[in-house]
Amino acid sequence: xxxGIIFDIKEFAVYDGPGIRTTVFMKGCPLRCQWCHNPExxxxxxxxxxxxxACIHCGACQNACHHKMCITCGACVSCCPLGLRRIAGxxxxxxxxxxxxxxxxxxxxGSGGGVTFSGGEPMMQWSFIEQxxxxxxxxxxxxxxxxxxxxxxxxxxxxxxxLIMMDIKLINPINHKKYTGVDNDRxxxxxxxxxxxxxxxxxxxxxxxxxxxxxxxxxxxAAIFEKPGSLIRVELLPYHITAGAKYSxxxxxxxxxxxxxxxPEIWLSPFHKRSIPTLxx
Amino acid sequence: xxxxxxxxxxxxxxKNHHAFRQTKLPPIDSYRDKKxxxxxxxxxxxxxxxxxxxxxxxPGEIIAGTRTLAELxxxxxxxxxxxxxxxxxxxxxxxxTNLSPDYGTVIQTGLLHLRxxxxxxxYHQAMRISIDAVLDFTSRYRQAAADMGASELAxxxxxxxxxxxxxxxxxxxxxxxxxxxxxxxxxxxxxxxRFDQYLMPYLQHDLDHGALTEEDAMELLEAFFLSxxxxxxxxxxxxxxxxxxxxxxGGMTPDGKxxxxxxxxxxLKASADLRLIDPKINLRVSRDTPLDIYKLGTQLTxxxxxxxxxxxxxxxxxxxxxxxxxxxxxxNYAMAAxxxxxxxxxxxxxxxxxxxxxxxxxxxxIREKLSEVHSIDELLPYVENKIKKTVLELAETYHDLYxxxxxxxxxxxxxxxxxxxxISLGCVYNNFGLHGxxxxxxSDILAAVDAAVFHGNISVSSLxxxxxxxxxGFEELQHYLKFDCPKMGNDDIxxxxxxxxxxxxxxxxxxxxxxERGGIYRAGTGSAMYYIxxxxxxxxxxxxxxxxxPLPANWAPSLNIRLEGPISLxxxxxxxxxxxxxxxxxxxxxxxxxxxxxxxxxxxxxQLVRLFIELxxxxxxxxxxxxxxxxxxxxxxxxYRNLIVRVWGWSGYFVELDKCYQDHIIKRxxxxx
Lengths: 281, 673
Description:
The structure holds two protein chains of two kinds.
Chain A: E1 3-11, E2 21-26, E3 47-50, H1 60-64, E4 85-88, E5 90-93, H2 94-102, H3 105-109, E6 114-119, H4 126-134, E7 140-145, H5 151-158, E8 163-167, H6 173-180, H7 185-196, E9 201-207, H8 215-223, E10 231-238, H9 269-272, E11 278-280
Parallel strand pairs in A: 2-6, 6-7, 7-8, 8-9, 9-10, 10-11
Antiparallel strand pairs in A: 1-2, 1-5, 3-4
Helix pairs in contact in A: 2-4, 5-7
Chain B: H1 3-13, H2 38-52, H3 78-87, H4 103-109, H5 111-116, H6 122-147, H7 151-159, H8 168-184, H9 195-208, H10 214-228, E1 246-250, H11 262-274, E2 280-285, H12 291-302, E3 309-312, H13 313-322, H14 327-331, E4 334-335, E5 341-342, E6 350-357, H15 358-369, H16 376-397, H17 407-410, H18 416-419, E7 432-437, H19 439-454, H20 460-468, H21 475-484, H22 493-510, E8 521-523, H23 530-536, H24 566-573, E9 587-592, H25 599-614, E10 619-625, H26 627-635, E11 644-646, E12 651-653, H27 659-669
Parallel strand pairs in B: 1-2, 2-3, 6-7, 7-8, 9-10
Antiparallel strand pairs in B: 3-10, 4-5, 11-12
Helix pairs in contact in B: 1-10, 2-6, 6-7, 8-9, 8-10, 9-11, 10-11, 11-12, 12-25, 15-16, 15-19, 16-22, 19-22, 26-27
């Protein structure tokens, strides 16, 4: 049986597809987007996560630790009386996860909802997800992906899920590499598959001030969808300053190279003139 | 809202009417006469109070009636009241409270019709004095309206509440005066009942005859809602906002049809439009309720008003029938001030006479018996006995009940006028209700002890030592109990089974128990303010809860635990059979305001509410909160005068609450979804 590593399971995720849904956050991502608000989803390994705000400095965690470097043994986690520490990243077997998700089945069926796989980048653990789906027949499955994976896996995924929510962050390849750490050629290739296929899909654009919120990028993005195929709509997600909240919790520093206090511009006309429906979240 | 409504709203929001408040109390001699029977004293006090009321109108007033007398002295002096208190059980303030009067009949017949049925018996005289006082008071309002040229208003006051209301506006004006007079009689938590049922015939008539357009009707309705918000600060309650001015919308009619009508919908819309704490809305639903109605309700939730509260007809009606309520009465249920099920015009139930602390019971059974037993199953008979004993002890204290009579209020209850029997002495239904606080925490304690002691390696003595020390030095154990043991709210049968069982034991414990009024006892899942009181005497508990952590309000999960999410939450909390414990007490879910960003999300919240109802949950109430905003409001109350929150069974302005309640709401907000 395959196993996967998961950093969160969220019930009633209202912005992750139709109806009442439970979203599984798969750990590990090949991209390093500077605006990422789930930094604990980046590394494919378990990580210690600490919420310091309510700490009463009782010292129990320090007494429990016998290591020079954190090995995510969890000793400090289980002695914190306030539960301020946890290990982000739990290993599940495909069957365990399916059983967990099926607990919510009544909520899915009455609302047109289902399960969404997000991350991190769920495509990194596609073979695990595919096995989970085997145990979830008849349940509406959605995936939130960057599209950064090989064409073969992506194509296989398209035939197995009911809805794909894919990010298009930047069209300019140089800027894409600069702000996300990777080239966008694979992403655009997979997008082509999406446009030509039958699986309904939604395009999501995080609007990052000064990075991709200019009219030019929006025009270039919209132009790709002259023949949009099964596109449902384009969703625009304006950047919010709270994106950086979790970095210090996993011992990272949030250092984006853009002005986090600026308000992103929202250009809808490039989409509307092509009759592409939009939704600003 | 239109311009006229906006004008009235801002006039009263700026508290302009407070300038008319009278601080000098009218003389008490007329009614504090030791030779007078109690009911006559009440009638004379009502007369005194109304005689001293001065007509006040907002600019462009539509529905008149503004209180100016800030205080209402007791009908007894301190010595008399002390003597009565020694000889009797006194519930709360000792007055008639928390009832659902039958406004519909009185609006329909008029007060004069009731007056004609009185004779010269002393009790009927008291009723007549009360009616005359209300009519004199109305007549002064009428004169004042005429004097300032408000001839339409004056004409209406000429007719109601003396004569049958003929139009929607007359019915609303009649209701306003009748309701106003109840407060002046010294009654409190005077609920407004099935507003959409008893007023719809007037609205329908006016719409059918072209006397009103829907916009006109909306203006009238909003004017009435505004009038409910004018005197909030003068009402008794535990906290400001706890005034019991609730209405009930939708639900089955006594003859078994769907009662949701045009007026129900208008009420939901008017409330969303005005965004005020009164009237608080209860929405009766069932498995047949269309999603669109839940969506309208969710629009209100989104505004952060803390209502509507949902009641499930599929559970409440059979539950009430099983308790002995006649089917047509059960179908006609309304809500008391918070969430207790009561019957309009027939119920003199006291649904909040006391409360059983389940966390307290489990805690003490564990302290006494844990070292003697080898499993939770062996512990359960002790739990059952303790619940029975607690219920019996409570019931024994409720004898020789004395309630100050209310001849005016009695006019709204079945048989009181005819039989010359005051409502304070009873009506068709005379049942007492007991709240059950902290049932989730109690279940968590049992599940944690099962895991730690019977399936783990924690000794009873070290568990007790940890509790005695409030977990100081036992941080690892506390973490284990709090975060690694099953918790109610996570759709986990290992703990939910205890909640099912405890509620069943509670309902069995009250079964066959009768009160001195010939009524029975009802078990429920409410808490009212008991959740604060019960927690303060508890100490640390075996579910890992620190001594200083409060108990949850009503039917809700423990505070400071990890929850899997709202789907698991409602599955856990819909699990017990509420038909046998239908006194009332809702599951409360706090949502972050970010959940409601678009229409799709509103639909999803509506679907979640519907799922709770489909799963057999009895009562649900959703809050929208923003924790940062609440914290800021504590620091800068002046900037948050409008911030409305749900407290236990009612909504109030956050900045007007005592700090302990503010803190509790902030704690709850930490569990938001």
